[in-house]
Amino acid sequence: VQLVESGGGLVQPGGSLRLSCAASGFTFSSYSMHWYRQAPGKERELVAAISSTGSNTNYADSVKGRFTISRDNAKNTVILQMNSLKSEDTAVYYCRRGGSGEYWGQGSQVTVSS
Length: 114
Description:
The protein is mostly beta strands. It is built from no helices and ten strands. The strands form two sheets. It has a six-stranded mixed sheet with strand order 2-10-9-4-5-6, with no helix packed on it. A four-stranded antiparallel sheet has the order 1-3-8-7, with no helix packed on it. Strand 5 and strand 6 form a beta hairpin.
């Protein structure tokens, strides 16, 4: 199992970023996928989740209405579109596979600062 995040970076408050997670080594369309984040000095928290077919999504209250999770099962990719970013969104963002086992990407830094 391999999960590789990309798309992080530095953005000003109010801006947007799009994170991608490329998956390989398993049947992608059979698993839910999740985005987590961890800010300095804080515990890792669940940001968004999407079911295996993409028909169901869930979001942390702190990102509802601003972030959108989606997936492309033909391309084995899960996306996190982040809009109206705030300084408190600054964190390392991780992609995680659902189901049994602990499979995480290496993380992608997102920094929201003027």
